[in-house]
Design a protein that fits this description.
The protein is mostly helical and 230 residues long. 77% of the residues lie in helices and 3% in strands. It contains 7 helices and 2 strands.
Length: 230
């Protein structure tokens, strides 16, 4: 059977399956962006520890290491590229038909613009992950252990950025009747640019990862509480 199957790839496989479920859920029916965002948070949780789990297996072959890098990036483009786009598309379902009824021309312009943002985000995410794979393969030929720095914004940061926006959207839309959907797409455009901008960013250690996991857990709880109470 093709592939490598051991505990080092388990979290990556779980992340991909979660992303697939999140995509289907987000786009189903009238759209369920809040449920989709919960799947995104779970993808972020898996990604936070998949590398550390993989490195606990010290007898991995070179092929197993390369396989791990490849499937991680392939999973990431689905989890942190396609899924956030689908969540944005689900948000549009809530606003788009109203906007097109009131101002048909404005609605069409909005659709074209936001579709362009989604395409830009996916393209930038794919380029970043492909570049990471190339540079990581070269780095592993001369270095051992995990890398200490990233260049550009990691695409996995989507697992904390977009839940924050959706949390604000859920609260402000119900309390102040403020639609934050345009801000969601504005942030998506900024992230796309940051993915391919060459600036150095220190990779978080275990403490930093635990802090981010804690932030994600708080976001998950707040999303659920806000959804049910508002």
């Amino acid at each position: 059977m093709l592939g490598y199957y051991n505990y080092t790839t388990l979290l990556t496989y779980l992340s991909l399956m979660s992303a697939g479920l999140g995509i289907v859920t987000s786009l189903g029916g009238a759209g369920h962006p809040y449920v989709g965002m919960c799947f995104l948070l779970f993808c972020g949780l898996c990604d936070a520890f998949d590398g550390k789990v993989a490195r606990t297996k010290t007898d991995r072959t070179e092929e197993e290491c390369c396989f791990g890098v490849q499937i991680d990036s392939l999973s990431d483009i689905v989890a942190f590229g396609v899924l956030p786009v689908c969540i944005g598309a689900a948000l549009l379902k809530r606003d788009l038909f109203i906007a097109m009824k009131e101002e048909p021309a404005l609605g069409k312009v909005t659709v074209v613009l936001l579709v362009a943002v989604m395409a830009l985000y996916l393209l930038a995410g794919m380029i970043r992950l492909a570049y990471f794979n190339v540079t990581e393969e070269k780095r592993q030929q001369t270095e051992t252990g995990a890398r200490k720095y990233y260049y550009g914004l990691p695409i996995t940061s989507a697992s904390l950025i977009f839940p924050t926006i959706l949390l604000l959207d859920l609260i402000l839309d119900k309390t102040a009747h403020f639609d934050i959907t345009p801000i969601y797409f504005a942030v998506m455009a900024i992230c796309a640019i940051a993915f391919v901008t060459k600036f150095q960013l220190k990779k978080p250690g275990l403490r930093g990862i635990l802090i981010m996991v804690g932030i994600g857990a708080v976001e998950f709880v707040l999303l659920m509480l806000s959804y049910y109470f508002f």
